[in-house]
């Protein structure tokens, strides 16, 4: 039986059974494969004239990124749509944003999942502070994937999945997925509970500026640039250092 | 930019004109909205808000509860470029996020 994630002097550690590590690792591989399949489709989409010099295709894609071009349609697969969601409720805007950013988001997710897969190869599963968020994001993507496959869209669905997981062990695909989903939920919860202990209580953003944000819909339109630089700088530093 | 005058402009002026309007559009304030979903854990969402935006514990938990109870919360705003960066970061963390023009 696995033990929860806990903080150590060098980062975080969980003891997982071999079959648990294998299962999580192969799920990572499945999601990587799914994300890769989107690449093929997206490239077919943007390469109308058959074979093309890849370097030129890249250059053309760059150019396309600068001019107004065809928006990229969202993936048909429900899991991919959840992992690579629309960035706008307006379909045209969402498609334009997708054309510019989906590829890098997809690559970032595959990189996270590859890192997680590698970490799952040794026992105990250990990671330092910089890698823990990556592993945590990968666990989240596994949960999003399983949740999509389990048609988990509401609080009621979450109840249904929970009772599937704890119910009598009738081994259909759904109850098996529900069990894994519940296991990963627990693992992710213990990891982030441990990680939360190490965040500064008062934050790193300029809280005066942030508090101003709290009033809904008063973004100080007269001064967007200077009002923005504080939180942006600290937000950026916070993520890039990870 | 009136269209009657536009017809008498030289090509360069027209380009400058459209560049200017692009700059204006880029400077319009945007906001990033995070939407509720039944999968992302409260612990996780709070951690993301604290870690990525540098929010205090109290502020992050308030935003997280707003997402949870009201279905959505505005988590950042600024010029379009910043909003785009933030929405992509939220997507990388697996949160449902969209950008929209700030009211």
UniProtKB/TrEMBL annotation, chain B:
<dbReference type="InterPro" id="IPR003769">
    <property type="entry name" value="ClpS_core"/>
</dbReference>
<dbReference type="GO" id="GO:0006508">
    <property type="term" value="P:proteolysis"/>
</dbReference>
<comment type="subunit">
    <text>Binds to the N-terminal domain of the chaperone ClpA.</text>
</comment>
<comment type="similarity">
    <text>Belongs to the ClpS family.</text>
</comment>
<comment type="function">
    <text>Involved in the modulation of the specificity of the ClpAP-mediated ATP-dependent protein degradation.</text>
</comment>
<feature type="domain" description="Adaptor protein ClpS core">
    <location>
        <begin position="27"/>
        <end position="98"/>
    </location>
</feature>
<dbReference type="InterPro" id="IPR022935">
    <property type="entry name" value="ClpS"/>
</dbReference>
<protein>
    <recommendedName>
        <fullName>ATP-dependent Clp protease adapter protein ClpS</fullName>
    </recommendedName>
</protein>
<dbReference type="GO" id="GO:0030163">
    <property type="term" value="P:protein catabolic process"/>
</dbReference>
<dbReference type="GO" id="GO:0008233">
    <property type="term" value="F:peptidase activity"/>
</dbReference>
<dbReference type="InterPro" id="IPR014719">
    <property type="entry name" value="Ribosomal_bL12_C/ClpS-like"/>
</dbReference>
<keyword id="KW-0378">Hydrolase</keyword>
<dbReference type="Pfam" id="PF02617">
    <property type="entry name" value="ClpS"/>
</dbReference>
<keyword id="KW-0645">Protease</keyword>
